[in-house]
Hints:
Blueprint lengths: L1 E6 L11 E2 L3 H10 L9 H9 E6 L3 H9 L6 E2 L17 E2 L1 H13 L9 H20 L4 E6 L1 H13 L2 E7 L6 E6 L1
Parallel strand pairs: 1-6, 3-4, 3-6
Antiparallel strand pairs: 1-8, 2-5, 7-8
Amino acid sequence: xxxxxxxxxxxxxxxxxxxxxxxxxxxxxxxxxxxxxxxxxxxxxxxxxxxxxxxxxxxxxxxxxxxxxxxxxxxxxxxxxxxxxxxxxxxxxxxxxxxxxxxxxxxxxxxxxxxxxxxxxxxxxxxxxxxxxxxxxxxxxxxxxxxxxxxxxxxxxxxxxxxxxxxxxxxxxxxxxxxxxxxxx
Length: 185
């Protein structure tokens, strides 16, 4: 019995090279609507996906298209597994890459500054509920349960699994298509 937390493939939308912070709302919207285009999953991801007895997914297109690239359909889709919201702040004059803005805004979020976005505590509560679903499905399964999700939420869910007695058995990759394999100790 194991739970695999896999990050989706590389999204097809990257947007502009440099944008003002006020343009990030449109960038986030487009990013959330993007799929993974022709991004090809690595062999290790294909093997894990083909061996999973259950597949769970975030409802965001980049997660669903990643599963499609792996030749799998989700058995269960739930909003609990979507990415943690990114707070946006108007910072005049400065133009940065969307990645730079994302890092800045995510650090602010981790420091408790969330504006109208979901707060860190709310995301942790959601991650606990998500972990409970994964554990329940793993307990009722004869094989592995694969979650196709997103970077920050996967980290929060992993912490919840560890607090419930699961241990990370293996880690594959660091970016898109990365995966952590968890087993009950």
